[in-house]
Amino acid sequence: MYTDSIEMVEVSPRDGLQNEKALIPTADKIALIERAIEAGSRRIEVTSFVNPRAVPQMADAEDVCASLPVRDDVTYIGLVMNQRGADRAIATGRIDELGTVTVATDRFAMANQGQTSDESVEIAKSIIESARQSRVSAQVTIAASFGCPFEGEVPEERVVAMALALAEASPREIGLADTIGVGNPAHVERLVTKVREAVGAIPVRVHFHNTRGTGLANVWAAIGAGATVIDSSIGGLGGCPFAPGAAGNIATEDVVYMLERAGISTGLELDSLIATNGWLSKIMAKPLPAMVGKSGGFPATREMEGN
Question: Is 148 annotated as catalytic?
Fold first, then answer.
């Protein structure tokens, strides 16, 4: 079920940076957002409204929001874990969409947000309703959909049941996250198909980490199974502070190269993304994981040199 186009959500300003120990200045976060917009990004996860003691990198959430470029054509997403975070995000007046999070297992849910798995579903449903009342969009992600760092295998039936429960709140979309990068294409194809069939018209979004090198293969499998939205991070930065070993989101540059070469439009400009990779690597003072950021796009035709 391959499509002509895919919507991309840029998560580098939040998920890409949240696990970095060196605090990134607010101005550099805004510059990253501006560069993402220049590259064509129209949905961007800009920050999270969480306890700064738990995630120090996101302590400037309100400051980031205050400095966001005014764009009618860009949706700014704020990640929230509870109603307090949702209230903070809505109060900025700059967040267009709340990103809520549920977790497929109890142990990871408690480590990630101090809730059981069932509680995370009920809280997310409540946040989605409060967003609706405030005329703000809301989407939801099921973290650890493909495996848990504490409990191991996650039954597919559990994820489908959570998706069905969340669908009752009519979120913009339901996301399946491979939080620790253990997914494989066969598992992805099965689970995306089951969830898509269960939730009907609600779009399915996927969020993969490339921890074990399967990220791009999983993207391809997800799209074939009917996922219509892909999360990715410029440079391949990212990871969850509460999930041991969850390093590396799939890189926006790598996804765009693969899909555009396959004839699937992303609306993003690869050369601009590669340039941003170079800029971001200097900001982070280290090379970034993205492969296309290192190698460049498809090589241009060159004339052979004569003798």
Answer: no
What mean pLDDT, rounded, does the chain reach? Answer: 94
Provide the token pair at 226: 């009917």
d(CA 263, CA 255): 12
The Cα 100–Cα 124 span in angstroms is: 6
Q: Is the pLDDT of residue 113 over 90?
A: no
Active-site annotation holder among 95, 180, 240, 259: 240
Measure Cα distances from 182 to 1, 83, 284 in Å. 24, 30, 26
**Other CB atoms within 10 Å distance of the CB of residue 68:** 22
Who's near 162: CB < 8 A, 6+ residues apart? 102, 104, 117, 121, 142
Checking if the pLDDT of 157 tops 70, the result is yes
Compute φ and ψ for 83, nearest 5 degrees: -65, -35
The yes-or-no verdict on residue 246 having pLDDT over 60 is no
DSSP 12: I
The enclosing H or E element of 119 equals helix 117-133
Closest CA to 247 of 221, 208, 218, 284: 208
CATH number of 7-295: 3.20.20.70
- Give pLDDT, residue 305: 62
User: From CA 49, how far away is CA 88, in angstroms rounded?
Assistant: 7
Q: Which ranges of 13-82 does DSSP label H, i.e. alpha helix?
A: 26-38, 61-66
What residue segments make up the domains of the chain, in order of their start? 7-295
